[in-house]
Design a protein that fits this description.
alpha/beta; two-stranded antiparallel ribbon; 8 strands; 37% helix; globular; Peptidase_C15-like; Pyrrolidone-carboxylate peptidase
Length: 219
Amino acid sequence: MGSEGPSVVTVHVTGFKKFHGVAENPTEKIVANLKSFMEKRGSPKNLVLGSCTVLETAGEGAVGTLHKVLESAIAERENRSSPQGQVIWIHFGVNSGATRFALENQAVNEATFRCPDELGWKPQRVPIVPSDGSISRTRETTLPVIELTKTLRRIGYDVVPSDDAGRFVCNYVYYHSLRFAEQHGIKSLFVHVPLFLTIDEEVQMHFVASLLELLASSN
């Protein structure tokens, strides 16, 4: 009997539109161009690139769309007769002051926005999910952030693990995604990227593709 090979990994990705201080969000372009980039580059047979969604940089504005695409992916998985393997959500956000990539290990149940989001909301020390309790509550990804970071660094990317995704919309979305992932047996990861002025678009696209391929190969 031959080996069945690695199981299928379906990866869904999100990015964000512009927001205060960032007129052009690199993650909007990354997510919009990812499918065509992966087609040209080629990817492992067991890697399926699912939905590519650009979210509003707004707490509730982003979460409404986020839950729709999360639930759609779950419904699609359940409607298929054959097993589809692992489902992973990768969320990309920009850190305009960063000089390297960061894989975020956790999100905190706290919304404290340093500036109003794109819908004008500026919460301060508000729980993201009140039923989860305190604003100090954290949720962690089940993906191996340290191992992924080490492998990506060996490939040549300047990337670090992080335990602080901030308290703005990135953390807000990540917390909701991690909560949803735990409830539905899927995985979620947030990745902060620099501006294209710091690390150019081509390098960032290759970084994202390498991360997706690594997730497929390590499954």
